[in-house]
Design brief:
The protein is mainly alpha-helical and 266 residues long. The protein is 68% helix and 3% strand. The chain contains 11 helices and 2 strands. The chain has a two-stranded antiparallel sheet with strand order 1-2. Helix 4 crosses helix 8. The structure holds zinc ion (ZN). This is FadR family transcriptional regulator.
Length: 266
């Protein structure tokens, strides 16, 4: 067990930090960030933590319970409080709760997705392994095979982009992408339900070709081409959103329908 250093959370000149919870939380975060404690380490007993932090034991206990619900620690009977690495699904839940009441949250998440994927594809150009390429190729085959099927097509599309982000080998990008997955999946599903099945051959070809270009750029290791192809892939959704914002209640005109459908398969 790593014994924590004396806490250094009372900052001279600053306002006293509010609740006992934030004292415990700040303490734990700083210890984790500077590497004093790691996954699997046992924390000091409640009594000693309370003394060190200058808060009561019930407050320490309450804070540790809250932290355990976040998956940051695990309270084990007869063992004590053990530091954990939270599962990324916790982050997804937090995203979903925090964004559930934000207007246009899905559009906002899309902006984050664009930022994240554009960096991911650049890294993928440098780091993708044969296995990553195979995963993307499999997903591309599925996109092609399910282009007439909204539900499976959406899943295949999601798999392709997930494989792309995984190929970045950036743990943080992968985790953030996973956290957004719930909202992204919902957005795909809702839009697909709105649009329904389509029979636009040109649009179907574009969907497949877009992904083929992305894969080829990664295989070629051409970061600029990859970035450009990805932005182009996302831009169609932006155009549609703009049209929708300008005429929210007007039914989609015929030429826009293909683009709308395409958006669901980003
Ligand atoms: Zn796509």
């Amino acid at each position: 067990m790593t014994r924590p250093k004396a806490p250094n959370i009372t900052r001279a000149g600053s306002e006293p930090q509010g609740s006992g919870f934030s004292k415990v939380f700040d303490f734990l975060r700083e210890q984790l960030l500077d590497g004093s404690i790691r996954n699997g380490d046992r924390l000091l007993p409640e009594r000693e933590l309370a003394l060190q932090l200058g808060v009561s034991r019930p407050i320490v206990r309450e804070a540790l319970r809250a932290l355990s619900m976040m998956g940051v620690v695990e309270i084990r009977e007869r063992v004590g409080t053990v530091v954990c690495r939270p599962d990324v699904s916790v982050l997804g839940d937090v995203f979903a709760f925090s964004l559930a009441q934000v207007p246009d949250a899905i559009d906002d998440v899309m902006q984050a997705r664009i930022a994240l994927e554009c960096q991911a594809i650049r890294l993928a150009c440098q780091r993708a392994t044969t296995a990553d390429i195979e995963r993307m190729r499999d997903a591309l085959d599925s996109i092609e095979a399910t282009v007439d099927d909204a539900t499976h097509g959406g899943l295949a599309d999601f798999d392709f982009h997930l494989a792309l982000v995984r190929a970045s080998k950036s743990d943080t990008l992968i985790q953030l992408y996973g956290a957004m997955a719930t909202l992204l999946t919902r957005s795909h599903r809702d839009r697909r339900q709105l649009v329904g099945d389509h029979h636009d051959e040109a649009m179907k070809r574009t969907v497949v070709e877009d992904h083929r270009h992305l894969l080829q750029a990664v295989i070629d290791g051409d970061e600029d081409a990859a970035d450009q192809a990805l932005r182009q892939h996302f831009r169609i959704g932006d155009d549609l959103r703009r049209q929708k914002a300008l005429a929210p209640s007007r039914p989609a005109a015929a030429p826009a329908r293909a683009r709308k459908t395409k958006e669901t398969t980003q």
